[in-house]
Amino acid sequence: MNMRHHLAILYAHYIDAILDGRKTVECRLSKLGNSPHGVLLPGDLIWLKDSCGPVRAVASVGMVRSFDRLTPARIAWLRKRFNEQIMAPPAFWHERSGARFATLVWLRNVCALQPFRVAKSDRRAWVVLAEPPAPNRPVASVPDRLA
């Protein structure tokens, strides 16, 4: 299978922490198993976009761990085991205590970019891309059923 491109929307301070090497694992929790759950593979590229801002970095996927049928106890275990690398505040874990799915992504080969804007207007925090993002071009996504 070919390498895929993904657009991950993060708060600026998380991108800063990724760029300076403090945050090495991205964590996505969901109730419905939304992307990237089940569609992310080692070697894929993740384009890191500020929430309401530009794409600022790109990283490759080193390792992916997916968890299904989560319970509050399993979420507490994920927090205890991985939060040093995830760097999420207590509110993150509390707000997502009802999640049923988790995807942990080990980031490698992180590269800062000259920031550029893309045309994205929906509220999705993760998009599987049909092609790499480009400045001022609309984000072309793969339909979820095909991801």
Summarize this structure briefly.
With about 150 residues, the protein is an alpha+beta fold. About 20% of the residues lie in helices and about 35% in strands. It starts with a strand and ends in an 18-residue tail after the last strand.
Written account of the structure:
The protein is α+β, with helices and mostly antiparallel strands and 147 residues long. It has a single domain, classed as Archaeosine Trna-guanine Transglycosylase, Chain: A, domain 4, CATH 2.30.130.30. It has three helices and six strands. The chain has a six-stranded mixed beta sheet. β3 (45-50) and β4 form a beta hairpin. The radius of gyration is 15 Å and the shape is globular.
Structural domain tally? 1
Please identify which CATH superfamily we are dealing with: Hypothetical protein
Distance between the termini: 12 Å
**Widest sheet: strand ordering:** 2-5-4-3-1-6
* CATH architecture verdict: Roll
The run of helices and strands is EHEEEHHEE
Percentage of residues in DSSP E strands: 25-35%
* Computed structural class: alpha+beta
Major beta sheet, specifics?
6 strands, mixed
- Which percent bin holds the helix content? 10-25%
- Total helical elements: 3
Q: Write down the CATH class.
A: Mainly Beta
Please compute the radius of gyration using only Cα atoms.
15 Å
Q: Would you tell me the overall average pLDDT?
A: 94
| CATH domain topology | Archaeosine Trna-guanine Transglycosylase, Chain: A, domain 4
Unreliable stretches covering 5 or more consecutive residues = none
Overall number of strands: 6
Principal-axes geometry comes out as: globular
